[in-house]
Amino acid sequence: MLAAQMGDVVVSYGGSGTLARQVQQGAPADVILLANAAWMDAVPQARDVADFASNSLVLIGAAGAADVDLAALPAALGEGRLAMGYTEAVPAGIYAREALQGLGLWEAIAPRVAQVDNVRAALILVARGEAPFGVVYATDARASDAVRVVAAFPEGSHAPIRYLGAELSERPEAQAFWEALRGELGQGILADFGYLPVAE
């Protein structure tokens, strides 16, 4: 769809820090899209920096799990582990820790957190039954029939989840892609996959 308007788009996936460091070291790229806003500051050639989407944070359990009252999460965990991204490096883990702190749950849960290197790894631990619950983005929860959302974190419990992008080259195709992603068509595609509009 977007690609049809501007030619083929080649995508390289990775964590925000990994992608930013690759660009710093000269990896060829025309546009960069990051889930961690802080890493954009490490990309000096970034131009026309802007938010292009947002997300929400949810608690997932196995497909047959019952809904969970977040206030009762420590008890619901029992002897199990809570899967989530690294709280010092992975954006979803940073938001998750902030949300749990905001709800007054972090101290009770911290010793039972299983930190992993990305949000999809947290989802996989729950999907495989290796952790009873995990904290992921709502969009990631949609990626597997083996899990379901059992609770949603209140917006005010953590900072708005931001996705930032920027142009890295002056190629017309790069500008066209970046504009299209932020336009009606691009925003419609993102919404179809569960992403939210740019956080106010």
Task: State the CATH class of the largest domain.
Answer: Alpha Beta
CATH architecture of the largest domain: 3-Layer(aba) Sandwich
Please give the domain count: 2
CATH topology grouping of the largest domain: D-Maltodextrin-Binding Protein, domain 2
- Summarize the helix and strand pattern as letters: HHEHEEHEHHEHEHEEHH
Descriptive labels:
single chain, 200 residues, alpha/beta, D-Maltodextrin-Binding Protein, domain 2, 2 domains, five-stranded mixed sheet, three-stranded antiparallel sheet, 36% helix, 22% strand, elongated
Provide structural commentary:
It is elongated and about 55 Å long. By secondary structure, the protein is α/β, with parallel strands linked by helices. It has helices at residues 2-6, 16-24, 37-40, 73-77, 91-102, 106-109, 119-127, 138-141, 172-182, 184-192; strands at 31-34, 47-54, 57-62, 82-85, 113-116, 133-137, 147-152, 162-167. Helix content is 36%, strand content 22%. It folds into two domains: 2-54 and 161-192, Periplasmic binding protein-like II (D-Maltodextrin-Binding Protein, domain 2), CATH 3.40.190; 58-157, D-Maltodextrin-Binding Protein, domain 2 (3-Layer(aba) Sandwich), CATH 3.40.190. The strands form two sheets. The protein has a five-stranded mixed beta sheet with strand order 5-4-6-3-7, with helices on both faces. It has a three-stranded antiparallel beta sheet with strand order 1-8-2.
